[in-house]
Amino acid sequence: MAESKVEYTEDSIKSLDWKQHIRLRPGMYIGKLGDGSAQDDGIYVLLKEIIDNAIDEYMMGYGKQIDILIQDQKVQVRDYGRGIPLGKVVDCVSKINTGGKYDSGAFQKSVGLNGVGTKAVNALSSYFKVQSVRDGRMKAAEFAYGELIKEHQEQSIDNEKNGTYVCFVPDSKIFKNYRFIPEFVEEQILNYTYLNAGLVINLNGKKYVSENGLYDLLKRKVDEETIRYPIIHLKGDDIEIAMTHGEQYGEEYYSFVNGQNTTQGGTHLAAFREAVVKTVREFYKKDFDASDIRASIVAAIAIRIQEPVFESQTKTKLGSVNMAPDGVTVRNFVNDFVKKELDNFLHKNPSVADALLKRILQSERERKDIAGIKKLANERARKANLHNKKLRDCRIHFDDLKNERRYESTLFITEGDSASGSITKSRNVETQAVFSLRGKPLNCFGLTKKVVYENEEFNLLQHALNIENGLDELRYNRIVIATDADVDGMHIRLLMLTFFLQFFPDLVRNGHVYILETPLFRVRNKKETIYCYSEEGKQKAIEKLGGNPEITRFKGLGEISPEEFGLFIGENIRLQPVLLQHETSISKLLSYYMGKNTQERQNFIIQNLKVEKNILQEPIVEAIAQ
Length: 626
Hints:
single chain; Heat Shock Protein 90; 38% helix; 3 domains; nine-stranded mixed sheet; globular; Ribosomal Protein S5, domain 2; 22 helices; 19% strand; alpha+beta; Rossmann fold
C-alpha cells in the first residue's frame, strides 16, 4: 500500500495571534498547567503575575496595601498604586509587548519586564476584568479568553483611591478540575511580605505584614529549639541574607530576585553557597569539606538587579551573570558582600562562631562515620538498578529539563504485588513509574542517615529518586504514596512520610509528595457507574441511580481492576498534597506520631477515635500536618 504524503505548501504555514498562541502553548508562558495540587501549578503563576504588578507599584513608592479575595475559582486583586493610564487600560492587558516596564528609569528592578504576564492571565481566563482609577476618573474593560467583550466608557468616580483592580477566573478547559489550596496561596503572600517589609497584604480578610524581612521568613521556617545559633541577618544595598544551621539533613534555601521566588536557584544562589564555604574556611583557617560547612544550613537570600535574565518564562531560575548591563558580576557582588559582612559578624559574635564550628565538626564526623557503609550500599544499588524488580520505570523524568512533559513524571510507591500489578498495567509508561514496597517499611524515627544505606529498600528508593545529594537531579516531580484505605495502609503512609520528613524534608517542603485518593465504593446499575470517595458520596450515588444499584466496597487497591485503575490515575487523578503548616516543627511532629507511645498520644487517639467509615474519609495528610 502506497504511503500517503502530506503536501507542504503556503497553506501549511499558519500565523497565530497572541491569544491563540498562549492558549495553544500555555506551558511556554506559565510553565506547567496542573490542577492546583502543586505549588508551581499554573493557577498560582496567574495569581503571581497580577500581584507582581501591584508589588512593582509599591516598590516605586505608590500604594502600601494590596487586597486579595479568592472565592472558589474567582480571583480579585486590588492595589492602591498609580493605576494604569486610562487610555491604555485595554492595551496593557491585551496587546503583547505593551507595558510600562520597558522604561528602565521607571521600573529599575522590576520582575515583569517582558510585557507578557498579564496578557497570559487574560488569554487563559474564561473571564477577565481590569479597572483603573486615576485622580477621580475610572476606566474598565472585560474579556473572555483574551477577547474584548465590553469596554466601559471612562467616567468620574468619587471617594475611590487610585489604583488597579483585576478580576479573573482561570479557564477550566485548560486547568482541569482545579482549585486554589489556601496553604499555597498563603505561602505566596507571606513571601511577598518578607521581601517588602512594611507592605500590607489582605488575603480573604486576613492581614499579612512583615517588619524584619528575611529574618521573619527564616524564623517561621526553622524550629527554634533545634537551631545551633541565633539567625544571622545581613542587609546591604540590593542584597539581604538570613542564615543559621539546624539538625536536619540536607541544605535548605529560599532564594529571590527582584521579589521573584527563584525556586530553582540560579547564579545568585550558587554564588551564595560558594561564598559561605570560602568565608568560613578563611575565618577558621581550615580547609573544611564544603559539604560539612553547608550540611544542615537553612538560609534565605534576596537580591535586586537591573534587567534580570531568567532561564524560563516562569522566572524560577536566574540566569543573569551581571548585576546590571554594565555592572559587576552577580558572583562577585554576592561573594564580596558575604565575605565582608559574615566575616565581621563572626568576629563580633564569638559564641555564634563557636556554635557554627561545632556544627561543622559534627557534620564531618557523621560523614566519615557512614563513608564505608555508603560506598558498599551504593555499589549494591548500582548492581540492583540493572535488574531492579522493585522499580517499573517510565520514559520521561523530571530532570529531563528540555522535555515540556517533565512535570508529569510521577513515581507511585505501592504496597504489595497486587496493588503494584494493577497500577503497572494501567499506568502511562511515558510519565508514570511504580516502586513496590515489600510489606511495611522500617520506622526510621530517631535513626541516623546510616539506616538509609543499611536498609536495602530505603537505599533502592533513594537511588530511584536520585536524591542522595539533594533535589537538583530529582527524577520524578510527583512522589505519590498509593496505599490501601485501611489501618495497615494508613500505617504504611505514616512510615513513608516519616522516612521523607526525617531524611529528605525538602521533598515535602517543595511540594513533591502526595497521597493518592482512590474510590472507596463503586455504585452502578446497567446504565451508569459512579465511583465514590466517601460514605456521603455513596449515599448521593444511590439516590441518583435509584432502585437497587450494585454497591462494591474496595477494601484494597489490588481489588480494583487495571482497567478501572486507569480511570483514577489518568487525567482525573485525585492527589492530596502533603502539606506542612508553617508553624509545624518536623522534630516535634515525628516525635509525637512516631516516637514512644506517650500518654499524650494515647489520650489523643482515644479522644479522636472514629468509626471505620469516618477513618476512611480522613486524609492522612491532615493528621500529619497539624
